[in-house]
Predict the structure of BIG2 domain-containing protein.
Amino acid sequence: MTRSLEPMIDFFLREKGELVHINGVRQLALIRDATDTIQMTDEKIIRAATPLHTGDSVDYRYEQYLITSQVDRNEKSCRGRMRKCNQRLALNWNGQVKWFDAVVEARTFSTETGKVISMPEGNILVTVQDNADTRNIALNQRFYMTHQPFKVTGIDRTMNGIIQLSCTLDSINTAYDDVEHNIADRWKYEITHTYALQINQGTIAHVLLNETLSLNLTATDNGNEMVNPVITFITSDPNVVSVDQHGQVIGIALGQASITAKLTYHLTVLSTIELRVVETGTHIYSIAITGNPMLKTGQSASYVSHIYDHGTEVFDQSVEWSLRNQDDSTPIMGSIIATTGNSVTVKAGSSSGAINKVLVLTATLVSDPSITVEKNISLKNLF
């Protein structure tokens, strides 16, 4: 890509551009490999009609990149070099854990073309975006990478947009470090968490061809709803259904594909929904149940069914409720004690046999009993 593209940049973006997210904003960009030879690092050239800056985060083909070069600004476009982030690092500030996409390397290139400088064994160079969070990184702060502990020994903030950290191997603290999940000092501050994530449109939903559908999710921590949880969305077939990082689904072609949502910092906590892309036609209903996924023995809670037609909530339909044990055993370790409209109140059993059981609450559409949705409710000890 040369400056000769400049007069026709809009045309090339329309014809050859790819959708990316730059700092979370969706837009078109021209992407090409930075070199013609295979290298250890994945570097690409990005060109866009909107402003680019050193340190910008680019989501390209479900991979995170960081613009690490200075940006060449022309009359109608900007161009820069971006590198694939090969690690996600967790930094812990007195119990507040934040994750960062980073470029990690054990060797660097000098200003002398082609010369590689190997860093001392056990030392790495970490490049991260310069933002309000990374500016709080301090000397001797510890983090894990591939189950090995490192600490920050040097901080270089001389290049606008990025921060480079010189780091060296450190010792494992078996009492406090969560080595399995690569979080330093986790158990020094954190209590045990039980996370849950649910897509509220149920297990199957429909989206019209060339239309959009916003996924509605509930994430909880120890039964309490999380505020602004960070979620990663993945589509099983981007040629049928695409999804962005905000859970906005687009029907690309007739057919079906699954969308999986994961808590970004706890990737084993996930929920999956099947999306069917259809043409405009008859009603296509789906149901979602909202309410606490955890109940203490002997206590009760209310749950509400939300009914959607083509992903839009409607209020002229009703459901019937039922309750069972997840393992289909008897007696049922709970009961439905009240129903009002499309809401229901469930009471957990009080016997010791109810502890750690899971109830399954089912809502069935009255006008079409083939449409159902289930919600799992975990029963915990009152004390």
The chain has four domains: 3-80, 87-189, 192-281, 286-383. DSSP finds two helices and 34 strands in the chain. Confidence is low (pLDDT under 50) at residues 109-114. Residues 21 and 134 are 21 Å apart (CA to CA).
